[in-house]
């Protein structure tokens, strides 16, 4: 399984960015997938997750109402639409996947596969 994250960049506070994670190597039926982020000097933290089959989603409280996670089955991609961005959202964003959906999905250790990360910088 290979994951390729893209879409990061520099944006002003209040702006928007859309991240994408291209997944390849197999079909992702019954996979759980997620976005995490890691700011300088901080631990990697959960942002949002989605079940590939069914589309159930969950979000960290810090991004609820601002970020939207989605998937495109035909393109095998997962997306993260980020709106009303704040300087505190500045981080490297990683996509992750695991071959099951039961259990917790908010810890980095819950995931088997990781993309390389894409940098999001929000200026004030």
Keywords:
124 residues; mainly beta; 7-stranded mixed beta sheet; 4-stranded antiparallel beta sheet; globular
Polypeptide structure, described:
A hairpin with a 6-residue loop joins strand 4 (32-38) and strand 5. The protein is an all-beta fold and 124 residues long. The strands form two sheets. Strands 2, 4, 5, 6, 9, 10 and 11 form a seven-stranded mixed sheet that branches. Strands 1-3-8-7 form a four-stranded antiparallel sheet, with no helix packed on it. The termini are far apart. The chain is built from no helices and eleven strands. It has strands spanning 2-6, 9-12, 17-24, 32-38, 45-51, 57-59, 67-72, 77-82, 91-98, 113-114, 118-123. It is globular, with a radius of gyration of 13 Å.
Q: Kindly state the percentage of residues in helix.
A: under 10%
Q: Report strand %.
A: over 45%
Number of strands: 11
Order of helices and strands: EEEEEEEEEEE
Q: How large is the count of helical segments?
A: 0
First-residue to last-residue Cα separation? 37 Å
Low-confidence stretches: none
Nearest-angstrom radius of gyration? 13 Å
In short:
By secondary structure, this protein is mainly beta.
Q: What is this structure's SSE topology?
A:
Elements: E1 2-6, E2 9-12, E3 17-24, E4 32-38, E5 45-51, E6 57-59, E7 67-72, E8 77-82, E9 91-98, E10 113-114, E11 118-123
Parallel strand pairs: 2-11
Antiparallel strand pairs: 1-3, 3-8, 4-5, 4-9, 5-6, 7-8, 9-10, 9-11
């Amino acid at each position: 399984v290979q994951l390729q994250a893209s879409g990061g960049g520099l944006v002003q506070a209040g702006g928007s960015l859309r991240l994408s994670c291209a997944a390849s190597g197999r079909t992702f039926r019954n996979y759980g997938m997620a976005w995490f982020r890691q700011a300088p000097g901080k631990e990697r933290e959960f942002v949002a997750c989605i079940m590939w089959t069914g589309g159930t989603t969950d979000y960290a409280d810090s991004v609820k109402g601002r970020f939207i996670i989605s998937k495109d089955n035909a393109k095998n991609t997962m997306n993260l639409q980020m709106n009303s961005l704040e300087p505190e959202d500045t981080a490297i964003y990683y996509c992750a996947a695991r071959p099951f959906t039961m259990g917790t999905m908010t810890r980095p250790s819950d995931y088997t596969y990781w993309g390389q990360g894409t940098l999001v910088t929000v200026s004030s």
